[in-house]
Write a structure and sequence with these properties.
Length: 360
């Protein structure tokens, strides 16, 4: 058995921990592991490299993999691979894969899992997915590698911004990643003690956003309330750029603002970097363990899931990890993104209920 592993899509803190754990678990069972560099693109480019090294007593992880285990980013490199979107490209990738590997573990998000599912269904490749996406937009799992680290970074950034905001009596719009999912914005706002959260799933128009933010700022700084800072988290998926929102709100409030000013900060890719948190390292290690075991048990086209919220997953030796068919995961993911999932609806309803509390 030659086991391959790749990371694909946007990087997420904890990807290296997952690769390291895959290598450790496989090496412990005498299975050599080969890394594919730069995601699915590496299959096209023939970028394979040994991640295990033979020792007299058995196999050990390559040195750089051991050293990278605690680091953010992806040592193997990651990419969004255009060639994978057409059937001909996937056939080429599958042929290259077969030449070098017998099974593959894919660590990534929605697009990466879609690719894994296609490899399994179209070409009979043995493939197991591990969810990794800071956005928390993957179905059938309570978390994905990177979510917790990203939220810790957001909360830390909001604390820092609050320090300077309070000193100047300012309002800040802080934009966080999440093109298709507002989860980082919602969870970050609650944890940072923000005054409001603006996310795509609310479906507010530009005019409504300006009106709501202006009303919040007016209420917060005026009269008895006399707040020292207003913190508004905005998800990347809300189309109006943060600087434009700030400009329109400033214009709408005009003289009412007095000495209060409004600023925008876009956290952007800062949120994706940094060393993984405890939770992401633990989740990464346990996903990796379950994924290698699943491959050795002959499973394919499944994804590891963390304490899944829905019934129907297959239990693994780890009580916190179940296996779901990738087809089911992709269906749930689409529903999370288009808002038809009860999970998304529950999140939006909870945030609506919290809006009164956030806007105190
Ligand atoms: O990893 C997902 C994500 O963080 C999205 O929230 C964001 O829109 C996107 O990646 C940014 O990707 P890129 O690094 O290609 O700009």
């Amino acid at each position: 058995m030659r086991l391959g592993v790749l990371t694909s899509g946007g990087d997420a803190p904890g990807m290296n921990a997952a690769v390291h754990a895959v290598v450790r678990v496989a090496a412990g069972r005498g299975v050599p592991v080969i890394g594919v560099e730069r995601g699915y693109q590496g299959l096209f480019d023939g970028r394979f490299r040994a991640l295990t090294r033979p020792l007299p007593g058995g196999l050990a992880p390559a040195r750089d993999i051991e050293l990278a285990a605690n680091l953010g980013g992806s040592l193997l490199g990651t990419a969004r691979c255009q060639g994978f979107y057409d059937a001909e490209g996937r056939a080429r990738a599958a042929a290259s894969l077969r030449e070098h590997l017998d099974a593959l573990i894919v660590i990534g998000g929605n697009g990466s899992l879609t690719g894994a599912h296609a490899l399994a269904t179209e070409h009979g490749v043995t493939v197991v997915g591990i969810p990794a996406s800071i956005d928390h937009d993957i179905g059938c799992t309570n978390t994905a590698i990177g979510v917790d680290s990203a939220l810790n970074t957001i909360v830390d950034a909001c604390d820092r911004i609050s320090d300077t905001a309070r000193s100047h009596r300012r309002a800040f719009v802080v934009e966080v990643m999440g093109r298709q999912s507002g989860y980082l914005c919602m969870a970050g706002a609650v944890a940072a003690g923000a005054d409001a959260a603006l996310f795509r799933e609310q479906g507010r128009s530009e005019a409504q956003l300006v009106q709501d933010v202006a009303a919040l700022i007016r209420r917060s700084f005026s009269g008895d309330r006399d707040k020292q800072r207003v913190l508004i988290l905005k998800a990347e998926g809300v189309e109006i750029p943060s600087t434009k929102l700030v400009r329109l709100v400033t214009e709408a409030l005009g003289d009412e603002l007095g000495d209060v000013s409004i600023r925008a900060t876009v956290l952007g890719h800062l949120v994706r970097g940094g060393n993984p948190s405890f939770l992401d390292r633990m989740v990464a290690n346990r996903f990796a363990h379950a994924a290698v075991r699943a491959i050795l048990d002959g499973k394919t086209d499944v994804m590891t899931a963390w304490q899944p919220p829905v019934a129907g997953g297959e239990r693994t030796v780890d009580h916190g990890v179940s296996l779901f068919s990738i087809a089911k995961v992709l269906e749930e993911t689409a529903a999370l993104i288009d808002g038809s999932s009860p999970v998304t609806q529950g999140r939006v309803a909870l945030m609506e209920a919290a809006a009164g509390v956030l806007a105190l």
